[in-house]
Specification:
heterodimer; A: mainly alpha; MetI-like fold; 15 helices; 2 strands; globular; B: MetI-like fold; 2 domains; Carbohydrate ABC transporter membrane protein 2 (CUT1 family) (chain B); membrane (chain B); MetI-like_sf (chain B); transmembrane helix (chain B)
Amino acid sequence: MPVSPKQARTWKHRSWVAFLIVPPVVFMTLFVVYPILSAFAYAFYEWRGLARGEFVGLANFRDVLFGPTMAPVVWNAFLHNVYALVALMIIQNGGGFFLAWLLYKEPFGFRFHRVAVFVPVVLSTIIVGFLWKLFLNPNFGLINQALYTVGLDSLAKPWLGDSSTALGALILANAWHFVGFPTLVYLAGMQRIPSEIIEAARLDGTTEWQLLKNVVWPLVAPSTTILFTLLFIGAFNWFEIPYVMAGLDGSPFGSTDVLGLVFYRTAFGNQSASIQNFGQGSALATLIFLFIVVFASMLTLWLRRREIQF
Amino acid sequence: MKTEAETLHGAAQPRPISFAFLAQIILIMNSFIMLYPVVVMVLSAFKTTGEIFEHPFALPDFTQVQNFTRVLGETSMPTYFVNSIIVTGVSILLILVLGTMAGYAVARYESRTNTFILLFFLAGLMLPLKLAVIPLFILLRDLGLLDTRWSLIVTYTAIGLPSAVFIMAGFLRSLPSELEDAARIDGASEPRIMWSVMLPLARPPMAIAAIQNAVPIWNDFFFPLVFIQTDAYKTLPQGLTTFMGEYTTDWGMLFAGLTIAAAPITLLYIALSRQFIQGMTAGAVK
């Protein structure tokens, strides 16, 4: 390092380094570390509106996980988060992988396609949710109009109003919104594969599918690890698309309820029942947080093990 | 045109080109699905509600801009727009200033605390601050920042800072030390070396850190929903929900509002797509 030990010890030098390092660290402590530690602490107290009451131990956690009013809602929502994770892993990340492979070969117009696939990623979720809500409208929505046009009237339905299709519709809207992200991360991963490896496999006469399955997929494992971890965190924090497209109550009949909505309703109330419970809200946030940290790190470690060095 | 060119070219080598042909169809379909909703939104913004329902697919008369003038003249959208620019701009500025300070200290000066400081910021990179929104809400209330633009600015800065520290430290560490040694021999002070020698070289990572944070901040919806009540301080995504509640049946107005909200970031993306893609995937691409 360029600075000699003698120089480093001078008061002037130290105060300069402190001037650089102290403001960012203080800022992070105040607005990240302190709130996160407080979130754990708050979960052990009873709250009356915005005022902290007495210490109640694990009562809030018990209410959230096993209480007669909260628990069924929480577990129902958790299940929907799991569905969303699995479905998005296949559609969004899996679809991204195949799109990346098509772009990797640099076909005619690939620059245009690469820009196009990422356009929805930069749009606000409010806009995306609103547009898809319109397209899925039962009366004049594009999807049903298209089905009528091709004579498949029987398939047309109120997608967001039917509890059997609403969650699936939200998942597809989310996939449309974000598929560009895994696509371009995978594309960057594929471009890092040494071209000799792919050339060698080609010369051996492997089919396209074998090449993809036995060569490309194992070699982009680092991208898979990162994308899966990000999707995992995103799926259990899912809030915006369900809020915009299905509303705060996860309508119809809680079929689109997810943990993010339950957390928001518990902590900040909603129009129909404006009771806020910061204690139960904090307990739920703590549980989601611990779940994400524990499972995301376990999965990341497991996925890391199957990565190949090259 | 595209597909014809491909098939003509493919006459000599049938097998690989048939795959290329299929790939081309999939890519064109995919790009169509990706762009179609956006195109509908923009075209409908130039139509009246009646025209939207009667001729949903027709090209509009682009000189018919009364939806836009009404959105800008009659609604709070201009206020939301200005708020979004202020909040995003100030947040990015703070992220870059604080991120460069910490990144520079960690990268250019050896210290026993460096590892600790990097781990400290790494923790911030992993933790979703959304889940700490209750204590953040109370903290901002106690600081008197709740229901102001500052509540959003400090939150976004806190979220964006860790990644900026890593991007800046990673780049600044790669700069050769001969540069600063030469300046040091010439008698330049440490602040002077940082400002005049090192930082002018650090514009590319600053651009990446700025872009990486600009899109999520511009589009964020969750924190305004919790922190902001006063209409005059709402940013675009939150303001749009208010706006959509007021004009539920005036489709032309709705689409014009959405188009105005989407325009800045989308146009910027189209103009700087390479930098945007690099910036937004920077965390996931080594």
